[in-house]
């Protein structure tokens, strides 16, 4: 479940993207937690219906996407109660004041650590 709260950030670099509304993702199951051989019980989560848009992570979900793939993946519910854990392929976090950056989101799934 995604929070329905919509907010706006105060612009820091006059970029139009900073003025766009965003949705808050604050579900506890989103936080990186590794369970060898999968969580038990497994309450698998999936975001197949997450719409294109701006999102912000807030606790208890964590604060950002990871910049490295999970240490282990491929077992049902072993990371974040999901089969496919997202991470940033460029392996770097945005830096305040850096301006807009393009990133690719990988999904560690099955035997592939970076499914795009």
Model description:
- The chain is built from no helices and six strands.
- It has 116 residues and is mostly beta strands.
Structural topology:
Layout: E1 6-7, E2 22-25, E3 55-57, E4 85-88, E5 105-109, E6 112-115
Parallel strand pairs: 2-3
Antiparallel strand pairs: 1-2, 4-5, 5-6
Number of strands: 6
The span between the termini is: 23 Å
Main sheet record: 3 strands, mixed
Return Rg in Å: 15 Å
Helix content: under 10%
Would you tell me the structural class of the helices and strands? mainly beta
Q: Which ranges are low-confidence, i.e. pLDDT below 50, for 5 or more consecutive residues? A: none
Task: Please give the count of helices.
Answer: 0
Strand content: 15-25%
User: What is the 3D form?
Assistant: globular
Trace the largest sheet across and list its strands.
1-2-3
Average pLDDT works out at 78
> H/E order of the elements?
EEEEEE
Keywords:
116 residues; mainly beta; 3-stranded antiparallel sheet; 0% helix
């Amino acid at each position: 479940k995604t929070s329905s709260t919509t907010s706006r950030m105060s612009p820091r670099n006059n970029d139009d993207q900073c003025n766009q509304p965003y949705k808050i993702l604050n579900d506890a199951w989103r936080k990186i937690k590794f369970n060898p051989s999968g969580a038990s019980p497994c309450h698998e989560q999936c975001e197949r219906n997450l719409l294109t848009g701006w999102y912000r992570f807030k606790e208890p979900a964590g604060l950002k996407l990871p910049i490295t793939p999970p240490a282990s993946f491929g077992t049902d519910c072993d990371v974040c109660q999901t089969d496919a854990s997202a991470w940033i392929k460029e392996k770097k976090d945005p830096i305040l004041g850096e301006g807009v950056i393009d990133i690719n989101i990988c999904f560690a799934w099955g035997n592939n650590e970076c499914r795009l």
